[in-house]
Amino acid sequence: MSKKQPILFVQPPMFPNEQPVERMELGGFKCTYCHGNGWFWGLDEYGEHIKQECPVCKGKKRLKAVVTIEWKEEQ
Question: How confident is the model at residue 17 (pLDDT cuts 50, 70, 90)?
Fold first, then answer.
């Protein structure tokens, strides 16, 4: 089975002093906490089964990664 795997190549910009920080957002990752369902089975105050929203993805089923790169001199 094939697997989607995003790859990020890191390369310093041409003028790192003018652009010392880069920020990228990569989305479309299935939530691993709820396995992409967006909810869990829970119990209400009467002990009956109810759907509860996933606390990580907030019911959206997907997550995004925010990658920040800060360019500095090497110590």
Answer: confident
DSSP the chain: -------------S-TTT--EEEEEEEEEEPTTTTT-SEEEEE-TTS-EEEEE-TTTTT-SEEEEEEEEE-----
Please, are residues 30 and 47 in contact by the beta-carbon 8 Å criterion? no
Closest alpha carbon to 55 in 68, 67, 37: 37
Please give the pLDDT value at position 16: 78
Question: Is the model's pTM score more than 0.70?
Answer: no
Radius of gyration (C-alpha) of the chain in whole angstroms: 20
Residue 57: exposed, middle, or buried by beta-carbon count in 10 A (0-12, 13-18, 19+)?
buried
For residue 47, what are its two tokens?
Answer: 């002990």
